[in-house]
Amino acid sequence: MEHGLHNNVLCSQQFNEFKESFSNYWSICGYWYEQRNITKTKFQSFPLSDGFRKGDVIIIWRANENNIKLGDTLVFQGNRAQPIIHRVVKIWEQDGQKHYQTKGDHNSASINGQNSEEDITINRIYGKAIAKVPYLGWVKILFVEILALFGIIIER
């Protein structure tokens, strides 16, 4: 289970302690999904429903309007330089084009504003996550941190 705290926060709520389990995650964050007719059982059937952690390498595959489904995890361009990787929570069609809304599993809501995740079109999508390799990313993370000890900074 990988729906624990990040900096002692989960879905905008602060915790000193949190027993990591899907049931505990759902008791804190599930209300948002349930308001959108995504039940606990449905969420658990989504790909990567157990989330991911720092250090996991996410395998990305091409995405198109025909292979993106509710619950998929998309990598898309948001309003910052770094892409966002969040879960599809709504799909609709408008003017012959599919639109997607996403939400980070640990966020209290979807991000809004310019280039938000409330209305994403295919031109902003790089791909969708199809698998994860736990811990492999720590090789790069540790390498970058060791270099930083010597004053060598690698921009992300």
UniProtKB/TrEMBL annotation:
* Sequence intervals crossing the membrane: 135-154
Protein's UniProt keywords contain Membrane: yes
| InterPro entries in the cross-refs | Peptidase_S26, Peptidase_S26B
Could you tell me the keywords of this UniProt record? Membrane, Transmembrane, Transmembrane helix
Keyword Transmembrane recorded: yes
Q: What class of enzyme is it?
A: hydrolase
**What EC number(s) has UniProt assigned to this enzyme?**
3.4.21.89
Spell out the molecular function terms from Gene Ontology: serine-type endopeptidase activity; signal peptidase activity
**What's the superkingdom here?**
Bacteria
GO cellular component terms listed in the entry, alphabetical order: membrane
GO annotation, biological process: signal peptide processing
User: What protein name does the entry list?
Assistant: Signal peptidase I
Organism (species): Candidatus Buchananbacteria bacterium RIFCSPLOWO2_01_FULL_40_23b
